[in-house]
Amino acid sequence: MIKTKYFWIILSVLLLSFVAINELHFTKNELMGKVTPIKDSHFVKISKKYTNKSNIYLRKEAYKAFIKMYDAAENDDINLNIISAFRSFNHQKYIWERKWNGKVKVDGEYLNNTIKGDLFKANKILLYSSMPGSSRHHWGTDIDLNNLENKYFETGKGKKIYQWLTTHAAEYGYCQVYTSNRKFGYQEEKWHWSYIPLAKKMLNEYQKQIKISDFKGFAGSDQASDVKIIQHYVLGINEKCK
Ligand SMILES: [Zn+2]
Question: pTM for this structure?
Answer without folding.
Answer: 0.89
